[in-house]
Design goal:
The chain is an alpha+beta fold. It has 2 domains: 116 residues, no CATH class; 89 residues, TolA/TonB C-terminal domain (2-Layer Sandwich), CATH 3.30.2420. The protein has 6 helices and 15 strands. The chain is globular and about 55 Å long. The relative contact order is 0.09.
Length: 259
């Protein structure tokens, strides 16, 4: 027969164990087992860095070698930075007072969403490398580094050789649309005639097929409430012919500001 005198001590020991787990677990590296494979891990850190996710809704200190999974949020405080390494050996550094979301694209490729602050690409890793979403734009790690001269000086990997006939880059897409600014501003001029206070940001998303034609054109966000203006902007994109390329169709977002 079970000895009742051990019930109270047993409950006290079990309660103490739960307290230790609740305190030491998030801080010391204990975490519930997760079925999915980690996407990345914390390779280097300086200063105060915290992580938030579904299992830890309150920010906790991120330790070296901590694994990151989809939907994890990483934050750096003042005078802090962190180096994150993907499973494919790609690397990026998060600067102070920044926030990112670790995630994946629909095709499973690694994605970092920059919510605040800055990141720097240091290594591209094995193909297909990783992707970065910032300020409404989705860029490959290579295109992100090419778009920022400061980033180029901090690369630890050489830029891969590109076959211009086999793919289209975000830089080429934006260059083509920037050349259409006069057409976009004709649309804006018509909007101003109806509302002189019209101004703001417009995000237009679209897909470029392999033959260079645009499809699935949508206004993702518009601070100018004018249906004719938004239709006019989409028409400019629809008339734009990009170069043909091999591989999968490319979906992107192009931000514009009218004022």
């Amino acid at each position: 027969m079970f000895d009742k005198k051990w019930i109270v001590p047993g409950l006290l020991i079990f309660g103490a164990f739960l307290v230790i787990i609740s305190i030491w677990g998030p801080q010391g590296g204990f975490s519930p087992s997760r079925k999915e494979a980690p996407l990345a891990y914390l390779a280097e850190k300086t200063g105060q860095v915290t992580i938030v996710n579904n299992q830890m809704p309150a920010p906790v200190s991120a330790k070296l070698n901590l694994s990151f999974y989809a939907r994890d949020i990483l934050r750096t405080e003042e005078n802090s930075d962190v180096l994150v390494q993907w499973a494919n050996e790609g690397q990026f550094r998060l600067s102070e007072k920044s926030e990112i979301l670790i995630d994946t694209l629909e095709n499973g490729h690694p994605l970092v969403v920059v919510r605040a602050g800055e990141i720097v690409v240091e290594k591209f890793g094995r193909a297909p490398s990783f992707w970065i979403r910032k300020d409404g734009q989705l860029l490959s790690a290579v295109d992100f580094a090419l778009a920022d001269r400061k980033n180029l000086s901090k690369l630890k990997d050489p830029l891969p050789e590109k076959d211009n006939k086999s793919q289209i880059t975000q830089f080429e897409i934006e260059s083509m649309l920037n050349a259409k600014k006069s057409d976009f501003f004709k649309c804006y001029g018509q909007a101003l005639q109806k509302n002189s206070a019209a101004r703001g940001q417009v995000l237009i998303s679209f897909t470029i097929e392999r033959q260079g034609q645009t499809t699935q054109i949508e206004i993702s966000k518009s601070e100018i409430s004018d249906n004719n203006f938004n239709s006019c902007v989409m028409e400019v994109v629809a008339r734009t012919q990009f170069k043909s390329f091999s591989g999968a169709a490319v979906t992107t977002v192009f931000p514009m500001r009218f004022e």
